[in-house]
UniProtKB/TrEMBL annotation:
Membrane-traversing stretches: none
Glutamyl/glutaminyl-tRNA synthetase class Ib anti-codon binding domain boundaries: 340-443
Similarity field: Belongs to the class-I aminoacyl-tRNA synthetase family.
Entry's Gene Ontology molecular function annotations: ATP binding; glutamine-tRNA ligase activity
Protein name as annotated: Glutamine--tRNA ligase
Keyword terms, alphabetized: Aminoacyl-tRNA synthetase, ATP-binding, Cytoplasm, Ligase, Nucleotide-binding, Protein biosynthesis
GO CC annotation, single: cytosol
Length: 557
């Protein structure tokens, strides 16, 4: 009985279903994710990762991780490590070991010799500027290089001597011999190899000639037997060269299919621009929580499930698209609402004193860590100390409320302290500038949560932390790094002009003592404030928390 082929949900899957029904490649599906190890992965890469791995999984296929490491000037081993960590964090494991284009340098060199022997490649002594002039433009055909008609014997000799290191950088290149009048400018005798006397992060000084991306990419796909080479739309014009090389070399016919890359408001996906932010000290590093890198979003506390959901929900399209930042945060909030334990922290503390509470008394109250949900009871923990002096949010107190629907702290108001008692506010103390330094109140002893026999009611509930047992927290409130949703779309302005000067605010906060057990990466909901994730910068005595996402959604979808 023939196994049922899953129905296609997008145009890429339609191609795959067609190939499977036709028995192409023996019914095999094999994709790959091929990053260049010259920086950290970003949100745009997440889209490509999800597409490649999820499609491979859906159709019973495999997905390779291959580093396209053909440029020794920019690539480093620690970038490889971070890429691998990012993929595993997202929840994906690739087929076998990590692969490298540099694994195939020997085969690629032999491919180049094959082109030379077929009269389809030649060694060119032209300079970079001369080659650019020879290319012509969209309205003007190119002109042949004066070295285009070298003999096969001469080209092979020169290319072998290039490999042997006889020539300096930039003195010669290997070009494909295609058509200098081709409507696709990329096929006007593209450069396939250049000389670079630089050590490679994996092969050391074994090579001084390196293939360009267009020569290494498709041939690496073919070597690995990749059936469907899925890449972003910017490589559409490269497909003609991709196919030409496969046909000229008579190698495995991988099929390139392009999809639209995903952009997100307020995040940039240019590695060069991201690197500039790091090198100029505008952010603290590649993993700064304001960055659009996966490392930054991981440190900020984004759950990998939320990113996968976001990439899947935004779909696979043929046109570049701009996604709302609020939609990204909506997916983060949706996951954290179900998974994050609830704790209390006061971000802008002012002291509240219960004048009728015994000075030496400490009660341990029951804190609700997870609310009751369908099929799951509430998760509680008796770990909440309560005493005479409490920290509360400064914004929760008003001397003279102007709104009759104001139900928080104010003279004469009754307010419920979360998981504790109802209190009656009697007044406050202030300094010479009129700044409130202490709020005074009394509590109703019979109003304890879960056992309230007081008969008193309160319309408002606020969070708090006991002063004596509170721990100090450093809280980093992150906002968008840019003031403009598309800072790179302004041709007449530098993207750095749109840096948000208020993208990071550091607060000296107070937290309940149970937060001392937080480990880097643990995410909690601070009641009434938002979701916060413990940062590696924290110490056992003073945790550091990053704002992951606020409680309220701005997405209107």
């Amino acid at each position: 009985m023939t196994e049922r082929i899953p129905e296609a949900d997008n145009f890429i899957e339609e191609f795959i279903v067609e190939d499977l029904k036709n028995g192409k490649h023996g019914g095999r599906v094999h994709t790959r994710f091929p990053p260049e190890p010259n920086g950290y992965l970003h949100i745009g890469h997440a889209k490509a990762i999800v597409i490649n791995f999820e499609i491979g999984k859906k159709y019973g296929g495999k997905t390779n991780l291959r580093m396209d490491d053909t440029n020794p000037s920019t690539e480093e081993t620690h970038f490889v490590t971070n890429i691998e960590n990012d993929l595993r964090w997202l929840g994906y494991e690739w087929e076998g070991e990590t692969l490298y284009a540099s694994d195939y340098f020997g085969e690629l060199y032999e491919f180049a010799l094959r082109l030379i022997d077929k009269g389809l490649a030649y060694v060119d002594d032209s300079t970079v500027e001369e080659i650019a002039q020879q290319k012509g433009d969209i309205d003007r055909p190119g002109t042949n290089s004066p070295f285009r008609d070298r003999s096969i014997t001469e080209n092979r000799d020169l290319f072998e001597r290039m490999k042997a290191g006889e020539f300096p950088d930039g003195s010669k290149v290997l070009r494909a011999k295609i058509d200098m009048a081709h409507p696709n400018l990329l096929l006007r005798d593209p450069v396939l190899y250049r000389i670079k006397h630089e050590a490679h992060h994996r092969t050391g000084d074994a090579w001084c000639i390196y293939p360009l991306y267009d020569f290494a990419h498709g041939q690496s796909d073919s070597i690995e037997g990749i059936t469907h080479s899925l890449c972003s739309l910017e490589f559409r014009h490269h497909r003609d060269l991709y196919n030409w090389l496969i046909e000229a070399l008579e190698i495995f016919p991988s099929r390139q299919i392009e999809f639209a890359r995903m952009n997100v408001d307020y995040l940039i996906t240019s590695k060069r621009k991201l690197k500039k932010l790091v090198e100029e000290g505008i952010v603290a590093g590649w993993d700064d929580p304001r960055m659009g890198t996966l490392a930054g979003m991981r440190r900020k506390g984004y759950p990998p499930l939320a990113l996968r959901n976001f990439c899947l929900r935004t779909g696979v399209t043929k046109r570049d698209n701009q996604q709302e930042y609020d939609l990204l945060e909506h997916n983060v909030r949706e996951v954290l609402n179900d998974t994050a334990d609830r704790y209390m922290a006061v971000l802008d503390p002012v002291k509240l004193v219960l004048t009728n509470y015994p000075a030496d008394q400490v009660e341990m109250l029951t804190a609700e860590r997870q609310p009751e949900t369908e099929g799951s009871p509430a998760l509680t923990e008796e770990a909440l100390p309560f005493g005479k002096e409490l920290w509360v949010e400064r914004e929760d107190y008003q001397k003279e409320p102007q709104n009759r629907k104001y139900f928080r702290l104010a003279p004469g108001k009754d307010v419920r302290l979360k998981s504790a008692y109802i209190i009656h506010v009697s007044g406050h103390e202030e300094d010479a500038d009129g700044v409130v330094t202490q709020i005074n109140a009394t509590y109703y002893p019979e109003s304890r949560s879960g056992n309230d026999t007081s008969g008193v009611s309160a319309k408002g509930t606020i969070h708090w932390v006991a002063v004596r047992e509170a721990i100090d927290l450093e809280v980093r409130e992150y906002d968008k790094l840019f003031t403009d949703p598309t800072p790179m779309d302004h041709e007449d302005r530098d993207f750095l002009e749109f840096i948000n000067p208020s993208s990071l605010q550091i607060l000296a906060a107070k937290g309940e003592p149970a937060l001392a057990k937080a480990q880097p990466g643990d995410t909690f909901q601070f009641l009434r404030k938002g979701y916060y994730t413990a940062d590696p910068d924290g110490t056992p005595g003073k945790p550091v928390f990053n704002l992951t996402v606020g409680l309220k959604s701005g997405w209107k979808g």
